[in-house]
Write a structure and sequence with these properties.
mainly alpha; MetI-like fold; two-stranded antiparallel ribbon; 2 strands; 68% helix
């Protein structure tokens, strides 16, 4: 079909047909990549998105004899529908104490634990002996594969007031035993220390991979300019992994009101419960153990929403400062 000027005009049908042929050609060329994506997508749909319908339990009266979530009655107060009933019930003094402890412990974890794998990766990168470097890496990775029950048993053997190796050494040197696991302030320090020890080796893997991707010519240019090891680290290595650091920092900020249940549950004891009760253990003790699933779901939903806001805020701030965020 030609126009008055003698030029061909492309119809809407021809344009769609051309785009379809391009898409078909592209799909035939790269179908293996999309086939590889099939299993992860199915996993996400079945185990991550499909269970999201059970968020409704936070707004309903959970009943064990009703298996269908849609048939459960909405939460009521004094005969009237009150979908936020369990959110209000959860927001008591114990919950606010658990929320304060969760945020405090996670911020301390972030402050001390986040830089540890970065520093360790920088040090490993500077080691000239490959065999020694691999040995140090292997030893540093090992604590990651230990359960928190085992780690707490180790902490009892090391930091126990009666019979702990560290306190035996202190008492032998003429000092008083330190209640690492019985005093709230000392317990917090021990909790953070054990967390850093358990995770810093494994966390350094990502940074070592990022360092390996830095162009070696940058180090050569820095050496020509007279830069030593520290200068190369500061002006080449750190800027080279800055984007990785920011992405991981944003992801850690998203979990500021979260936290692993096994770690805190294994290490807490009645003497330090005022600083060791977090949202994870609060949900377990007040929701799961007492079969109050609506209450535990409401607290978990609150936790997720607050974590999402932290994640979005950190990502937005990162992009406004000119850095690359998660998306």
């Amino acid at each position: 079909m030609k126009t008055e000027n003698g030029k061909k005009s492309v119809s809407v049908y021809d344009d769609r047909n051309t785009r379809f042929r391009k898409f078909y050609t592209y799909l035939r060329r790269y179908w293996q990549l999309y086939a590889m994506l099939a299993l992860p997508i199915i996993y996400l749909i079945v185990f991550k998105y499909q269970p999201m319908k059970y968020i409704l339990i936070a707004f309903k009266e959970y009943r064990l004899d009703v298996k269908n979530i849609w048939q459960m009655p909405w939460a009521t107060t004094a005969g009237k529908i009150d979908i936020f009933k369990y959110f209000k019930k959860a927001m008591n003094v114990d919950f606010y104490n658990a929320l304060r402890n969760t945020v405090t412990l996670n911020l301390l974890d972030l402050f001390f634990g986040f830089p540890a794998p970065i520093i360790f990766a920088l040090i490993l990168n500077e080691l000239p002996f490959k065999r020694f470097k691999k040995t140090v890496q292997t030893v540093a990775y090992m604590p990651h594969f230990l359960s928190w029950v085992i780690i707490y048993s180790l902490s009892l053997q090391l930091f126990g007031t009666a019979g702990g190796l560290v306190n035996q050494f202190l008492e032998g040197a003429g000092h008083e035993a330190i209640p690492f696991l019985n005093d709230p302030n000392h317990w917090i320090a021990t909790y953070i220390f054990m967390g850093v020890w358990q995770s810093f080796g494994w966390g350094s893997i990502i940074y070592l991979a990022a360092i390996a991707g830095i162009n070696p010519e940058l180090y050569e240019a820095a050496a020509v300019d007279g830069a030593g090891r520290f200068r190369k680290m500061w002006h080449v290595t750190l800027p080279g992994i800055k984007s990785t650091i920011i992405v991981l920092l944003i992801m850690n900020l998203g979990g500021i009101v979260g936290g692993a249940f096994d770690r805190i549950y294994a290490m807490q004891n009645p003497l330090v419960i005022d600083v060791a009760e977090t949202i994870a253990t609060f949900v377990y003790k007040n929701g799961v153990k007492m079969l109050r699933f609506s209450l535990s779901t409401a607290v978990g939903l609150f936790q997720s929403v607050v974590g999402l806001f932290f994640l979005l805020g950190a990502n937005t701030l990162s992009r406004k400062l000119g850095e690359r965020g998660i998306w």
